[in-house]
Amino acid sequence: MILPIVAYGHPVLRAVGTEIDKEYPGLEQLIADMWETMYNSNGVGLAAPQINRPIRLFVVDSLQIIHNLDEDEKKEYPGDEGIREVFINAQIKDLDGEEWAYNEGCLSIPKVREDVMRKETVTLTYLNDAFEPQEKTFTGITARVILHEYDHIEGKLFIDHIKPLKRTLLKRKLDDISKGKIRVDYRMLFPK
């Protein structure tokens, strides 16, 4: 089922997600719905807070980005083959490498894109969708998508990483989003 995506301004986007266990009600269906919602919205990642669930769960499919790069672009991200993975109760263990800029957007903040600086590499501990403990290191675009989604389960948004002046210049657009004065090709849940 395609779920509505929570728009900027909704308090759930600022909540730190709580950990879940395998008894979380309807978890398997929730994960399936998150994949369907993400693909329907043309996203590459989706965190549970974005569908109004304040829990530590997100999904990432960076394969679609990597597969669409030309050969020269792929050389810019050595070692990044892309992933399609579920992350439950993720915790960052290590951030490494140089910070680099990339123009990010977010399904909860439609039609706003800004350059965000993030580290090249992230190591996470998490549970996969079979609740098997994982510890993996990700790099390049995949690391960036993971860090973006990880921010959501920490109550942060990509705009928190941009300079205050830029945020001030975005205020009107952000206000319009929170008031529902925006059109997108997917269902949104606006703050009341």
State the name of the first-level CATH class. Alpha Beta
The average pLDDT is: 96
Shape: globular
Helix-strand makeup class: alpha+beta
Number of domains: 1
SSE arrangement, N to C: EHEEHHEEEHHE
Using DSSP, what is the number of strands?
Answer: 7
Oligomer description: single chain
Radius of gyration based on Cα positions: 16 Å
State the major sheet.
Answer: 5 strands, antiparallel
CATH superfamily: Peptide deformylase
End-to-end C-alpha gap: 23 Å
Give, in spatial order, the strands making up the sheet with the most strands.
2-3-4-5-6
Given as residue ranges, the uncertain stretches (5+ residues, pLDDT < 50) are: none
CATH architectural arrangement: Alpha-Beta Complex
- CATH topology tier name: Peptide Deformylase
Number of helices: 5
* Fraction in helix: 25-40%
Give the SSE map:
Blueprint: E1 5-6, H1 27-40, E2 45-47, E3 57-61, H2 63-68, H3 71-75, E4 84-106, E5 109-127, E6 133-139, H4 140-153, H5 164-178, E7 188-189
Parallel strand pairs: 1-7
Antiparallel strand pairs: 2-3, 3-4, 4-5, 5-6
GO molecular function: peptide deformylase activity
Cofactor: Fe(2+)
Keywords: Hydrolase, Iron, Metal-binding, Protein biosynthesis
